[in-house]
Structure formats: structure tokens, C-alpha cells
Write a structure and sequence with these properties.
Layout (H helix, E strand, L loop, with lengths): L2 H17 L17 E2 L4 E4 L5 H9 L2 H5 L17 H17 L3 E6 L6 E9 L7 E7 L7 H15 L5 E2 L4
Parallel strand pairs: 5-6
Antiparallel strand pairs: 1-2, 2-3, 3-4, 4-5
Length: about 170
Amino acid sequence: MSRDRARFRRKVIARSSVRFVAEPPFVPTDFEPPTTFVGDYFRLEPLGPQHNDADHAAWTSSIAHVRSTPGFPDGDWPPSEGMSLDRNLDDLRRHAADFDARSGFTFTVLDPVTGDVIGCVYLYPSPSPDADVTAQSWVRASHADLDVPLADAVAAWLAAEWPWEQVHRPGR
């Protein structure tokens, strides 16, 4: 093999090996993420398109309350002007895809008696090198008294059943 060809091949191998070096997965490959959590005043299940109408009603009825929740706002959510059901559905599909890909876990918070959507829990990789996961939650204004109990119950659940060691809970 010519010298130039060998040098080119080394560059390609070096570039391709860098390209395929993956970051550690968000959860270990052998970890089975929990798909439910039941507390005294709420039940969690993975958020998905089937929750669109109820999820949309929950947060649009409580935009100011959600934005004042510790750890929020985290950008422009929820949008102060709201959003269409179709756009909300796109968000729910994205969250469901993240769950399936194990790159983020979003749970809807349901009233254990009525089954109505009363909030949401988000578990995503932390941007901080000092934490493995960022955990955020909100409840609709009509259930504001559950804000702290939900956040605390989720923290205990993460410590007991999830693989992360360092949890970032903005505002908590």
C-alpha cells in the first residue's frame, strides 16, 4: 500500500472510530425503566399521545402556576399563549419516542380516583457534569397542594428504583 494511501486509511479509521464512540447511555442497557409509580394522591404512567386532550387541558388551565413552580420556567414552556392540540400531540409523541429510545422519561401524573391528568414529571439527562438526571415536575393549579409531595415522592422513587446516583432537582 502506498504511503499516502496508508496515511489516508489511518485518518479514515481515526475519524470513523471517533464517530462511533458513544457517550454512556442515559440508563444502563440492562435496566428496565419502571412504567408506573403509585403514591397516595397520584399515579404516574408514561406520557403519550393517548393523554393529549387531558394533558392539554391540565397545563393550559395552569400556565401561570406551572411557570411559578420551582424549577420552571426552563425556557419557553409552557408557552404563555398556549398551543394547539396538534402541537401538543407532537410534543407527546416526542416524549413517548424519548421513552422508547431510553433517552428521557416523561410521566403523566394522574388522579388515582378520577384518572384525570393533574401534572407531569420529566426525567432527562442533566446538562450539569455533577448530576446524572434532571427531574422536574408540575401539577395543575387546582392540585397545587400536591406540588411538594409529588416532587418529594419522585425523588424517593428515583433513589429506590432508578440507576442514577446524582439527581438535579432545579428549584428544590
